[in-house]
Design a protein that fits this description.
The chain is mostly beta strands and 174 residues long. It folds into 2 domains: 91 residues, Chitinase A, domain 3, CATH 3.10.50; 54 residues, Thrombin, subunit H (Beta Barrel). It contains 2 helices and 8 strands, in the order ββαββββββα. A 4-stranded antiparallel β-sheet has the order 2-1-8-3, covered by helices on one side. Strands 4-7-6-5 form a 4-stranded antiparallel β-sheet, with no helix packed on it. The radius of gyration is 18 Å and the shape is elongated.
Length: 174
């Protein structure tokens, strides 16, 4: 079966930055819906017309993927507002930040604690891969028609590329 709109593909990949450093390896196939909300448009376009076993190499520029780094999403906040034990790498939902943080902080982002100082900490609302061009080496492990339920939801249930930032201590993205 050829990959087209509203089909589900099982993919494995290696993701690197432009310097060749490995950012993520997916050894076991994960299913994504083409024509839904699971993959960036540039990845869907690159997969179109391929079949089972195909290997697709592509580079995803920041504006095609996780976006450019936005320094307006960096905030210096009082450390005392955050729970005891807050560490670098921890994430906070913007809609559930502690009372007293800056009113300027958009509520529709996930914030990562990137630095901790004695009296303050830095919250970063950018995706960890914002501003980074990524190189993907994708292998198509399966192709099937999407079910009516998947088409209705617009997803095969795995929106990796729409996922929140990495969990603390996790070296990979999935």
């Amino acid at each position: 079966m050829e990959i087209s709109e509203q089909c589900v593909v099982g993919l494995t990949w290696t993701m690197k930055d432009t310097l060749g450093d490995v950012l993520d390896v997916l050894d076991e196939p994960v299913e994504f819906m083409v024509g839904g909300d699971d993959l960036f448009d540039v990845i869907e376009a690159a997969l179109q017309g391929h079949e089972l076993g195909a290997r697709v190499l592509l580079q995803v520029e920041p504006e095609q993927g996780f976006g450019d780094f936005n320094d307006q999403l960096l905030f210096l906040e009082p450390r005392s507002l955050f729970p005891e034990g807050t560490e670098e790498g921890m994430t906070f939902d913007g809609s559930a930040l502690p009372k007293g943080v800056s009113d300027e902080i958009p509520k529709d982002a996930i914030y990562t604690v990137t630095e901790i100082y004695p009296d303050h900490l830095v919250l970063d609302g950018n995706h960890p891969l914002a501003g980074i061009a990524i190189r993907l080496d994708i292998t198509v492990r399966s192709v099937r028609e999407a079910t009516e339920e998947e088409v209705g939801r617009g997803t095969a249930g795995t929106a990796f590329f729409k996922a929140p930032p990495m969990a603390p201590g996790n070296e990979l993205l999935h």
